[in-house]
Amino acid sequence: SKKQAEKAVHQKKEQSKTKCRKARRRHINLVAEFNHRQRKNIWLETHIWHAKRFHMVKKWGYCLGNSPTEKSYRACYRAMTKHCLLQDLSYYCCLELKGKENELLKQLARICSTDTGLTFQESCYLSGRFEGSLNLYRADRYPEDMLGPVTFIWKPRNGSENRQLWIWVHPALKQDILRELKAIFQCSEPEDICITEPVTTSIQEEKQVEVVMSLGNKRKKEDKEGEKAVPVKKIIGDGTRDPFQPYSWIARTTGIAISDRSMEILRYRLIGPLSHSVLTGTLKAASVQTV
Prior knowledge:
34% helix, Pop1, alpha+beta, POP1 protein, three-stranded mixed beta sheet, Pop1_N, seven-stranded antiparallel beta sheet
């Protein structure tokens, strides 16, 4: 049995050496491998940068950088106090509400309280100029049954009574808060246009990898059509929801719609005195076009 085990290890080593590094690092092979590796824990868009520099942990359905591999605490502190430090908060979940402003405010008032501070209906938040934060509770249960803290921002008014609100929640709280929002707005029916496409099954994935492997053996430099012909699996959904389930619901009586926009909107936090100058140097304002 010992000889058989050694033989199996030797065969695995031989198989791993069948491809040169250039072939293993070919884009189409990397995409298939990366998709395979994040079937259980979704990667953020900055994952590879963090994976090279941080100890990674698997939490809340994501793969996140936990602590740096080098002693960079002083550098981070220096960046926060004198320069700019960026954090990737894209693992926070975004819940989008659409509908008439008075209908939204009427039901949202049931899950928060003015006793705790400013709420969704404050004019400075309704204008869309500022982001707000508050604690949510189960409907009509304040001060008991707290769901957890959230941040929110309204899309600026465009003259219509229909508004759009984004609520950002921690992935550990997402399911409870989403369930409560669906209950108070009576959004039980999935929107037909927003039902997600199911992720390819493991059998289909194996077939795809086989196609990739066969194409990866030998390919002429001028053959660019091969890469385009191979279907690349797209990970749909995030670590907090089943990709086979719908991600948008509507209330037929009021027209209020709730959508789960997790991993569709990236979120970064900039800390430090130079944060504003970094943003102004990076972003360019779009020209406003009126039709």
